[in-house]
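4.2 Preliminary Data

To establish feasibility before requesting continued support, the project team ran the inverse folding procedure on a target of 364 residues. The structure was first converted into the token representation described in Section 3, and no sequence information of any kind was made available to the design step. The complete token record follows.
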């Protein structure tokens, strides 16, 4: 944990809101004239919506810098390479939480960066090209770490499957059974073969899910297939894949592009509790499911610690303000009382208030 002084640093500076460009969520990737965010697929649409501006909550909401410049949030998937800043170098697209944090570290330390995206250019120096990493899970806590993760919001993990599946009990799978399926010690439910899908390496959802079911890369079974996280477009009958509940909500409310089929449904990992309530545009997160000590999870925005430490010469007041949860239009605000608050917009993407607002230093 960090000191009280450091924990409070994000509450020291306000953020002005100017030049609204209101739109429904969009994933265009212009070169940024300000801060650049990369990383987690889980958070890509909600951060992009905050950066680009949206009225999805019923009022205009946009997070901008004090100078009115725009934040650039780059998706986890798309072209194999990106250029984030004017006259900047072209480098491989960071795909997932871990890859995003690595890109941020290489942007800080100047060492060559190689993206986890297949076919991306290797060993590119990307100094100063990344400012924020989106992370759907915690990094490695380190009191002396060069990064700091600031709670963004509360999410949860469930799993997706096809409603045409015939395997017994596929709609509610307990943790022990899920472990057996992903180690391939059990390959059927009710005599029907079930095929587990795991997200790509570098995915925060992959890391969280495997940790929660007690599976490592070494114990992951040979029957498990790999797919892009949160993309259930090709999910077949009697197949299962981990799914961020917030992403599922956003797909149904219209906040995010629906990477699923009409027959794709969400299964519960918490007995007696559904991940969501309501349907279609009225779907909302189910708070008791999100509060579950195992399957609920906090998500984060990660930045260089020195840039948000007011005692450091590298301190950036505008960046600190963007991460101040007390500011109504900061990236980390979770207030839902008024439609014009960032928290109200985030709820449309299935993101609730995090379990803590305490920022923690991490090493990677």
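Position-by-position output of the design step:
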């Amino acid at each position: 944990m960090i000191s009280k002084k450091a924990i409070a640093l994000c509450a020291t500076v306000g953020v002005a809101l100017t030049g609204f460009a209101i739109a429904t969520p969009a994933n265009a990737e212009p070169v940024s004239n300000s801060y650049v965010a990369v990383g987690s697929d889980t958070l890509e649409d909600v951060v992009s919506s905050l950066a680009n501006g949206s009225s999805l909550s019923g009022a205009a909401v946009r997070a901008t810098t004090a100078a009115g410049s725009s934040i650039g949030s780059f998706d986890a998937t798309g072209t194999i390479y990106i250029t984030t800043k004017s006259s900047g170098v072209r480098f491989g697209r960071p795909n997932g939480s871990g890859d995003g944090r690595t890109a941020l570290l290489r942007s800080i330390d100047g060492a060559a960066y190689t993206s986890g995206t297949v076919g991306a250019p290797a060993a590119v120096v990307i100094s100063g090209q990344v400012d924020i990493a989106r992370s759907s899970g915690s990094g490695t806590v380190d009191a002396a770490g060069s990064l700091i993760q600031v709670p963004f919001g509360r999410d949860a993990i469930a799993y997706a499957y096809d409603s045409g599946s015939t395997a017994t009990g596929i709609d509610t799978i307990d943790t022990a059974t899920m472990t057996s399926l992903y180690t391939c010690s059990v390959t059927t439910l009710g005599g029907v073969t079930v095929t587990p899908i795991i997200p790509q390496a570098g995915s925060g959802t992959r890391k969280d899910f495997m940790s929660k079911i007690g599976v490592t890369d070494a114990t992951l079974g040979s029957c498990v297939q790999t797919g892009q996280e949160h993309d259930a477009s090709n999910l077949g009958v009697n197949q299962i894949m981990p799914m961020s509940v917030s992403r599922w909500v956003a797909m149904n409310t219209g906040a995010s592009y629906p990477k699923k089929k009409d027959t794709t449904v969400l299964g519960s990992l918490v007995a007696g509790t559904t991940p969501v309530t309501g349907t279609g545009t009225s779907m909302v997160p189910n708070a008791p499911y999100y509060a579950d000590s195992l399957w609920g999870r906090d998500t984060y925005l990660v930045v260089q610690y020195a840039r948000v430490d007011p005692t450091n010469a590298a301190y950036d007041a505008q960046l600190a303000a963007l991460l101040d949860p007390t500011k109504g239009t900061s990236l980390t605000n979770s207030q839902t009382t008024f439609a014009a608050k960032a928290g109200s917009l985030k709820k449309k993407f299935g993101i609730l208030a995090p379990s803590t607002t305490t920022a923690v230093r991490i090493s990677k």
